[in-house]
Structures are given as structure tokens and as C-alpha cells.
Amino acid sequence: MRICVFLSAADLAERYTAPARDFAERLGKGGHTLVWGGSDVGLMKVVADGVHAAGGRLCGVSVEFLAEMARPEADEMIVAADLAERKRLLLDKAEAVVIMVGGTGTLDEATEILELKKHGHTDKPVVLLNTAGFYDGLKQQFQRMEDEGFLPRPLSELVYFAEEPEQALAYLESATRGSR
Q: Which of 100, 136, 80, 94 is nearest to 18 (CA)?
């Protein structure tokens, strides 16, 4: 399975990197391909290193203004002209999406895939990996959106919230197996 992972390129604390390494190792050992922003820095590097070391493939989609940070030994590397093209390519190349910890760029990517799902423009499974409770506030906000009628579909149809890497990958494997 080709799994797009939206995540930070920042250097982060062990409470975030350890679960990311765990997920990456599971992804690689499962024979999956990581589709990611292509950066060879921060948490993006941690995940790419883990997938590669465990035998998985790497498909990066960088952007022109960050191309100097692209991972040189990816199995495939595409350089998009801008962030909008990068997001489109990341989603086009993936069969499923995992949202890991990140900043405004990760949040932008997350809300875009959820908006596409909300309107029926994709049916790819989406997992929000809530490492160390990072997305507790966002989960609460999404629940409020559903409760107050802002979502035309149940939240559970848009995104699956996982607390642990094993749970995230198990959900994706189950969801994609059912769609084949």
C-alpha cells in the first residue's frame, strides 16, 4: 500500500520521534511505500529512515523552494512547483493517508484531505495519529463541528483517530483490504 504521511520537518522530542520510528518500521516491514514531503530533515527524516531500514520504499514529493532538503536516496522523488501542486501529487500517489504531529503545513494538508472526503472527492482512508495527545484539541473541535451540524457526514467516515502506531496501520490495512 502507498501511504501518504503528513508530518513535521522539525526536530522534535523523543515523545514524538519514538512513535514515529515505530510506525515507520511497521510500514517498512509490511512492504508498504511511504509517500511523504520528501525532506531529509526532522521528523520527516526519522520516518523515511525507519521505512527504508525496514525494507519499505520511499516516494518523496518536494517543492522547489525546499528542494535542497530533499532526500537524495529516495526510490522516487518529484519536485513540485508550489505547495498546491505538492499536496495534489502527494494525494494522487497514495492509497491512504496518515496525519502525524506537525505545524501549520501539516494542519493545512490534513484539512484539505478531510474537505475532499467530506465532499466525496476521495474515499481514501485517513488516520490521525494522536501521538502523546497532540491532537486532543483538534479532535474536540472536529467533534463539536459534527455535533453542531457543520459536517454533512459523520466524523467517523472522514477520519479515524489512532492513539498508537500499531492501531493506525491496522486500521489502514483493514480499510484498504475491504475496498479491494
A: 100
Dist CA 74 CA 175 (whole Å): 27
Q: Please state the φ and ψ torsions of residue 81, each to the nearest 5 degrees.
A: -70, -35
Q: 10 Å Cβ neighbour count for 77?
A: 16
Q: Which residue has the cell 522523488?
A: 77
Beta strands at 96-99 and 2-6: parallel, antiparallel or unpaired: parallel
- The answer to whether 128 touches 99, Cβ cutoff 8 Å, is yes
CB atoms within 10 A of CB 124: 18
C-alpha grid cell for residue 127?
488516520
- pLDDT tens per residue across span 18-54: 999 999 999 999 999 999 999 999 999 999 999 999 9
Q: How much is the pTM?
A: 0.94
Per-residue confidence (pLDDT) for residue 176, from 0 to 100: 81
CA angle (23 as vertex; 77, 51 as ends), nearest 5: 35
SS3 state of residue 120: coil
- What's at 76, amino acid-wise? E
Would you list the DSSP string of 9-56?
A: -S---HHHHHHHHHHHHHHHHTT-EEEE--B-SHHHHHHHHHHHHTT-
CA nearest neighbour of 174 among 123, 117, 121, 125:
125
Please count the helices (runs of H) and the strands (runs of E) in the chain: 7, 7
The dihedrals phi and psi of 121, each to the nearest 5 degrees, come to -90, -5
Q: 102: which 3 cell numbers?
A: 506537525
